[in-house]
């Protein structure tokens, strides 16, 4: 029997395919007008956005204001300011051989795009990639995560208000809906999510040789030298680790710390967690919740596995399943081959490894997949250079955490298992554009030096 459940997806897709050429021709002025309308609609619905994300996983209002709404608005502003410049063709220099030609790069919309997003930053992630694709002149089907129904409803209402559905449309649903979408032929797929699903996306895209951007995850290590202001570094990492309840793709996953500062460092974590969340962190308004019981169980299993090991529990407390609350947890002496040290943690659990020799720390990082982010804290440039020179990562912030993602002129992306391609700002625009090479012979066809019959001139040209 024919499966008619996803006819609505086919209808949206077919409409967008028909609209593709018209969409490609929209002027930069019109695209900017749409971005301005999108910005105004977001600001108008700010209250609804905050309420919805609170309902989905109790994210604090201040975190939603900064990490969801502000980041989206800053990205829109950046595009509004620069789109004209970015869409202009760029002349490229020539060599003597090409002296009679001119050469340039054109930025063409790719066409029909599919954007698939996860639940952890359920407003910002769909929005920033949507902004880039629309600004580049594409149609978009936006597939939202099935785990955030409240914010999905608000995003849908924003999209309907700003765009016609043959230009931008939302598809909600689970694996079946995504699988159906992935069987369709798109010109670009932008996926944000886990490396495991990233492989499924890449395989599906390969059937049509569809261009892809994969924004994935992994274990992001932090190197901490003995030469630091301990309190400042711990406060910094405390925020980076516990914002969004640790459910951040570039959150510090584990720390590699010089053993010389072990005692003071342990003590600082105890003190700063108490200062930040009080004696009973479950009552803190600043801590979000784990998204669902599946993720809660995954995190609790990591901790259960450690109960009979030599793990030292620097900070821990009672977890609460009905409230989807995992107590902020800091550990040391965890077995190197436990699940916590194998998987991306993606929750409020932080293992610390104290090293005596930096080679030991480098070896641990190199034994794992290439990380999405890597952080270094040191006052010594030699230490920073040594770690940079002996590791790789999608991006790095030095003496601070996570800020490289916010810089308007840096690309964001992973490397191999943590991602393919780059996003955000100009890099996002380029990911959703085809950079077309155009060469024009100005005075005579340059290829005439190669024309038949071959002779000595040809030999000279081919050098
Ligand atoms: P996920 O890979 O499970 O899901 C992401 C999206 O893929 C969702 O829309 C989901 O519905 C869909 N999906 C899930 N299984 C699928 C399947 N078998 N076939 C087709 N589609 C499927 O990821 P998640 O749990 O929602 O998010 C957490 C992961 O995302 C973490 O690994 C995190 O590091 C990563 N992440 C990366 C970034 C980044 O920018 N690099 C940002 C946020 C999250």
Automatic annotation (TrEMBL):
InterPro entries: Ald_DH/histidinol_DH, Ald_DH_C, Ald_DH_CS_CYS, Ald_DH_CS_GLU, Ald_DH_N, Aldehyde_DH_dom, Aldehyde_DH_NAD(P). Residues 17-437 form the Aldehyde dehydrogenase domain. It comes from the Bacteria. Signal peptide: none annotated. The active site is at 215. Keywords: NAD, Oxidoreductase. The keyword NAD applies. The keyword Oxidoreductase applies. It holds the Pfam family Aldedh. Belongs to the aldehyde dehydrogenase family. This is Aldehyde dehydrogenase. It comes from Sphingobacterium bovistauri.
